[in-house]
Amino acid sequence: MGWNDSPLSMEAIAQLSSYQLDVQAYDLYVSSDLNRCLHTMKLLFSTVEPKTVMEFREMHFGDFQGKTYEQLKDDISYQKWLENPVIHAPPNGESFEQFANRVDAGWERICRYLHEENGARPFIVTHGGVIKYLLNRFAPVHKPFWDWSIVHGTGYELLFDVEQLRRGNRCISLREVPLMEKENG
Fold first, then answer.
1. Which of 118, 134, 139 has its CA nearest to residue 53?
2. At 140, which CATH number?
3. Is residue 85 part of a domain?
4. Is the pTM above the cut of 0.85?
5. In a structure prediction context, what are the per-residue pLDDT tens digits for the chain, which is 185 residues long?
6. Are residues 66 and 143 in the same domain?
7. GO MF terms on file (predicted)?
8. Is 107 found in the same domain as 163?
9. Distance of CA 81 to CAs 74, 90, 118, 143, Å?
10. What single DSSP character describes residue 90?
């Protein structure tokens, strides 16, 4: 989806509406500025006004956005990008290196927010590519970016030692966060 500001599907809205999360469990709420993330946050925490972090948008695919492989397969710039997406950017888009630098800047912003507000537990709603990049960079055990598989609606909790976080080192613990269904009644 990249930077397309597509709405959530009805199925996603129904699924997100069924979750019960404790608003008291977190002290900072952050979201990508795209509507699908802001809507997700509102469905999970109706009373929260998140800080928006544009740097946590998905990778910008530029002119490749919304096109299929069939439409792109003969495009020279697409072929170059596939050969090395780290340094080659789609026309009017960004390379993986630019994406990583942008996400790093967003992470630094969140760390500043936590420091300014004496926070310890942020809740972040963002996109699959951003999550994969953050896991690649901070998970306790390194795994290549392309090896991470992110399922929509999955949460991850990264636990940092304060000093490790300040230094930009890997977290000390990673776990998938279970989302609980609301009780009937």
1. 134
2. 3.40.50.1240
3. yes
4. yes
5. 567 778 888 998 998 888 878 888 899 999 999 999 999 999 999 999 999 999 999 999 999 998 999 999 999 999 999 999 888 999 999 999 999 999 999 999 999 999 898 888 999 999 999 999 999 999 999 999 989 998 877 889 999 888 888 888 898 999 988 666 665 44
6. no
7. phosphatase activity
8. yes
9. 12, 6, 42, 22
10. -
